[in-house]
Amino acid sequence: MQTAQANTNVTNCASGSAAEDRETTMTNTLQETDRKCPQCGGTLEFDPSTGGLKCPYCDYTEAIQHEEEAKESGTIDDEGRFVATEHAYTGKEDTATTDWGTATKTVICKSCGAEIMYDANAIANVCPYCGSTQVMEAGDQKEKIMAPGGVVTFDVDQRRAAELFKTWIGHKFFCPKLAKESAEPDKFHGVYVPYWTFDAEASGDYTGEYGINRTVKKDDGKTEIVTDWYGCSGEIEHFFDDVLVTASDRYDQNILQSVEPYRTDDVKPYKPQYLAGFMAERYTLKLTDAWPKAQSIMDEEMHELAEDDIRDQHNPDDVRSVSIEAKYADVTYKYLLLPVWISCFRYQDKIYRFMVNGQTGKVSGKTPISWIKVALTTIAVIAIIMLLYYLLGD
Which candidate, 47, 66, 65, 67, places its Cα nearest to that of 57? Predict the structure, then answer.
């Protein structure tokens, strides 16, 4: 259990007591995630350092076998890597498979509304997003929740995430010292965040203008730069691979996008054992709502590609008025779970959240600012400038 800090202005936001484990709806079971350690009887958890299951009590380890799951949810390439199946996007909702491979339960945070998927035997006592202890199991859990088509597992363990976080926040000069000491990075929660990924063959005709500068001598003898503009057109073709769209609205999107990218080619076939000891949030953004977001991302990149093509073709000094009507064909999607370490702390009645990419270790978050430090730094800079002006002036 996590405890509050001695100073009432700074508390860890993920403190609370255990909640009761209630009866849950069962799914079709392939293998339970609550596998017991054959040596001491403890519950095995997924271990990022070995990629298998590990007992947190006696350090017994066990490999995870996924040959059958690979056959069902994807293929194995020539290099022996798993490739998740791409589903054709038809513009309609698709539940694909709803078999999570184990008994699951949905826990709802009454404070922020987050819905998190747990193993049926897991005890959920704290919301990892807002730190509230007002969590409860959903009353009606008969709704079929689409199971992931693949999972990018944690490569960074909790200890490493804490180290990376300490280094990151240590470089935040204007962050108050008390806040740095009270962030408790060892209290990070490992969460699998839901993502939709989209592939598409894109093409489009573009028009635009490119400018060539020339120097003109004026009547008064002075010179000026004049830009001559020329119309142009062309065609762009591009293949988009795994465009990421967060399937949850429970995050600060700026922070979440700041810990990207992920190596989505390093995906494993979904198996419940990978979730042992972690949480997985269910998606709240439907597939049909995710596609327009992905298309917006693709549209922006197609516009940039058109500008790049104009520069490559004409070597101009400037480019303007670029317009492209992109079309997308052979659109496919996947539903993946991506790993994130999440933590937060309360400083002067405000919650600050942090994230660490569970695959690459990239850190992002928001920190409080010590305005006293800002003021002192400003005064010091002004003093130095005045001193230099005085010395150089003499």
Answer: 47
